[in-house]
Amino acid sequence: MSADTNLMPIPGPIDPVPVPRAAVQRADGKVELVGLPKEEIRAALESAGLDPKQAKLRAKQIWHWIYNRGVSDFSAMTDIAKAQQPWLAERFTLTRPEVVEAQVSTDGTRKWLLRTHDGHDFEMVFIPDADRGTLCVSSQVGCTLNCRFCHTGTMKLVRNLEPAEIVGQVMLARDALGEWPSSPEGRMLTNIVMMGMGEPLYNFDNVKQALKIVMDGDGLGLSKRRITLSTSGVVPMMSRAGEEIGVNLAVSLHAVTKEVRDEIVPINKKYGIEELLSACAAYPGANNARRITFEYVMLKDKNDSDADARELVRLIRQYKLPAKVNLIPFNPWPGAPYECSTDERIRAFSNIVFEAGISAPIRTPRGRDIDAACGQLKTAAEKKSRAERDREAAAA
Ligand code: SAH
Ligand code: SF4
């Protein structure tokens, strides 16, 4: 089977249902153990021939090596018999995404270009702050949703990242930050936002499976309170996200009228603002101590007027939402159809929301020198595939 059968061309501006995609077959035929629940590791070992008792013990040991020690080689697992290590390595694998490029910004922000085992590139960003360190994790290669201000939405091909590729991002960050063995004290990496490439609720099962391991006290051990999932508004999946994953919710609202949101966030044509805000009001676990974040990208003369700010306040009140608003200065990319609002306009917008008693910080762009702004991960991947296309064209 060619790996490319798992890539889907963008079906149009709106892809209304989450599309289940079979896991990509690895070229070497080995079974990936990263990203599997402990019970499934056990089952995999048993079906490879270990007796049930041994399979259970080995699963426990392997899990510990993967998530507490950061090991990616069976030969490092010193409590597993030397003779059994090659047997495991022939059948199973413990893969991290491949690092194609790693960059560090003058402000400490780090960006990685990563590659899947079947050759697709995606990105990950780490943003250190005084009191925390946030890893911005991707859920898909590309995105089917085509928001007009978002560079990821212009990528031609999409594939869901597998659980191993999602958990693997967090593990890679720990490798780079020197944070093994896993311990909760003194970590730089304290928070995770699912705000990299892709729409996490269109890859629900894989994101859920991966985040379960990230949140497992015996796994990577990050509290669900320190994890935020950002969605453009896949309404039918929002309650499941709250019930089954239980992390903080961020919603990419970006506009307060149907006309403007239809234009800039096309999924709005399928799930409108009223439906979206009702789903937010019903989001399990949201309360004043755990607010929903509304992301609002500031686009000049598009969504940034005083009237827009007042309407935003009205909507938040109408739906009685425990909300905070994150104002994101638009990060331009070549060919983008919008410009960023002026600083003055952004401040005026922020003040109106703030004076209504709703927190409305203006997000400071980070890692500008390496194009690392979270959420608009610049697609070096895309640039590369374009270069590849050019080469192909030249060779033809
Ligand atoms: N697909 C999800 C998560 C990834 S995008 C979502 O849309 O919520 C993460 C955030 O970055 C979203 O709020 C997104 O709208 C925002 N974003 C995308 N492109 C941007 C750009 N060029 N400038 C500023 N923010 C952008
Ligand atoms: Fe996809 Fe989010 Fe970008 Fe929209 S903003 S195209 S949903 S990644």
From TrEMBL:
CC cofactor note: Binds 1 [4Fe-4S] cluster. The cluster is coordinated with 3 cysteines and an exchangeable S-adenosyl-L-methionine.
Binding residues for S-adenosyl-L-methionine: G198, E199, S230, S252, L253, H254, N331
Protein name stated in the entry: Dual-specificity RNA methyltransferase RlmN
Segments passing through the bilayer: none
Subcellular location per the Swiss-Prot or TrEMBL entry: Cytoplasm
InterPro entries in the record: Aldolase_TIM, Methyltransferase_A, RlmN_N, RNA_MTrfase_RlmN, rRNA_lsu_MTrfase_RlmN/Cfr, rSAM, rSAM_sf
Organism from which the protein derives: Sphingomonas cremea
CDD domains tied to this protein: Radical_SAM (cd01335)
Binding site for [4Fe-4S] cluster: C143, C147, C150
Cofactor(s) needed by this chain: [4Fe-4S] cluster
Alphabetical list of HAMAP family matching this protein: RNA_methyltr_RlmN
Its biological purpose: Specifically methylates position 2 of adenine 2503 in 23S rRNA and position 2 of adenine 37 in tRNAs. m2A2503 modification seems to play a crucial role in the proofreading step occurring at the peptidyl transferase center and thus would serve to optimize ribosomal fidelity.
Record-annotated active site: E123, C374
Pfam families reported in the protein's UniProt record: Radical_SAM, RlmN_N
Keywords associated with the record: 4Fe-4S, Cytoplasm, Disulfide bond, Iron, Iron-sulfur, Metal-binding, Methyltransferase, rRNA processing, S-adenosyl-L-methionine, Transferase, tRNA processing
Predominant place of localization: cytoplasm
GO molecular function (one): 4 iron, 4 sulfur cluster binding
Family of the protein in this entry: Belongs to the radical SAM superfamily. RlmN family.
Organism domain of life: Bacteria
Entries under PANTHER family matching the protein: 23S RRNA METHYLTRANSFERASE, RADICAL SAM CORE DOMAIN-CONTAINING PROTEIN
